[in-house]
Each structure stands twice: as C-alpha cells, then as structure tokens.
Design a protein that fits this description.
The chain is an alpha+beta fold and 213 residues long. The chain has nine helices and four strands, in the order βαβαββααααααα. Helices cover 52% and strands 7% of the residues. Helix 1 (10-22) links the parallel strand 1 and strand 2. The two termini are 24 Å apart. The protein binds glutathione. The site of glutathione has 14 residues, from helix 1, helix 3 and helix 5.
C-alpha cells in the first residue's frame, strides 16, 4: 500500500497512526501542500478533491477521505481492532472521532484559513482566533466525554487505542501550532501522554516523516 501524505496534515497523521497501530506495511508518497502539489494533475488522478491523504492499494485502487481509509483498514485487518466490542461503545468512539473529523478539522483546513486571509483580510492573530475557537469547542466536549466514559484505561475509550485516539492526537498537535491553551483539558493531556509512549504514535508523528522540515 502507498499513502499519499503531508507531514503536518492532521488527516494524513490520523491515517498514519491507524496504519501503524495495525502494523500494516505501507510506503509514504509525500505531497507538498505548500508547493500546491495536491492541486497538480498527477495527484488529482488519485484524489479528485485535491486533498490528502489518499491510500493506494497494491491493485491501484485509490481510497480517499481519512474516515473511509481508516474504516477500510479496520475491515482489511480487523486485529488489533481500533473499535470497542459493543455496538453502542463503537458508536461512542465514532462520535468522538466525528467531533474532530466533521465539526473541527474542516474549519481549520489550509484552504479555509487561506480564504480567511485572502478574502477576509485576516492576519495570523485573526486566523489563530478562528481556528482556536473551533478547536476549543471540540476539546471542551471531548474532555467531558473522556471523563464521563465509564471505562478503565488511559486512552479515549478503554485500555487500548481506538479510532478516537487516532483523531485526537493530530488535533492536539494542530492546537499547539495555533497557540491553543490545553491546560483546561487534563483528561485529554493524559490520553496524549499515554499515546505518546506507543511506538505506533511515534512513528506516525509529523517530525518522523520523510518530508518533515
Ligand atoms: N475530510 C478529508 C479532509 C482532507 C483534508 O482536508 N486534508 C487537508 C490536509 S489535513 C488538505 O489536503 N488540505 C489542502 C488544502 O486545504 O488546500 C479527510 O479526512 O481526508
């Protein structure tokens, strides 16, 4: 398998974490978002939206959209599972992931922030305020959900990492870039500390990517 990825992209990062947790062999093909490579004809052949990541299977099938890729990986290699056993627990984990994937990340995406800068004359402070507002809204909810989840364990849901952790860790990484104060979120920071200890999360980290600078 080949993953088209950009080192600092949160959606690439969450997908790399899932690949690493599952122990799947994959190659990285870097897509330089800063140089606009995602909008070039070669990459658009793989991903009609011009967004990273894309997973390309050995038979050439392109899978776009990180939620679809991660669900594909879960079906392709069910063990270790990134979902709990009970359907209602699975729904909780998917809901936590969706808070980030559906309600938060899209508002802080490169093209959205560029639009704010170019069309609404926002400086970096304005952009940080915009992105930070939606990240804080997500973390406020997730902090309460992690605390109220009735389970033992140091991850978002239970004693092993789930899809929710795959989504949370990149969002925390992104928060640091936008100067979001994480001190009101001790439960999330505890999850972060637990994930950081795992080799899978370390290998997937932006700093450990071939295109990191
Ligand atoms: N919902 C998509 C979003 C993908 C996405 O927005 N990727 C970002 C990087 S994190 C991107 O390619 N941005 C390029 C741009 O905004 O121009 C997914 O989860 O795969």
């Amino acid at each position: 398998m080949k993953l088209y990825s950009y080192w600092r992209s949160g959606t690439s990062y969450r997908t790399r974490i899932a690949l690493e947790l599952k122990g799947i062999d994959y190659e990285i093909e870097t897509v330089d978002l800063r140089a606009g490579a995602h909008n070039g004809p070669a990459y658009l052949e793989h991903n009609r939206q011009g967004l990273v990541p894309t997973l390309v299977l050995d038979d050439g099938t392109n899978i776009c959209q990180s939620p679809a890729i991660i669900e594909y990986l879960e079906e392709y290699k069910p063990e270790p599972s990134l979902l709990p056993v009970l359907p209602e627990d699975r729904a909780t984990v998917r809901a936590m992931a969706a808070i980030i994937g559906c309600d938060t990340h899209p508002l802080g995406n490169l093209r959205v922030l560029k639009y704010l800068k170019d069309e609404f004359d926002q400086d970096q402070a304005g952009i940080n305020k915009w992105a930070g507002t939606w990240m804080k809204a997500a973390f406020d909810s997730l902090e309460k959900i992690v605390v109220s989840n009735d389970h033992e364990g140091e991850f978002c849901f239970g004693e092993t990492p789930t899809i929710a952790d795959c989504y949370l860790i990149p969002q925390i990484y992104s928060a640091a870039r936008f100067d979001v104060d994480l001190s009101p979120y001790p439960a999330l920071l505890k999850v972060h500390a637990a994930c950081e200890k795992l080799e899978a999360f370390q290998r997937a980290h932006p700093d450990n990517q071939p295109d990191a600078d």
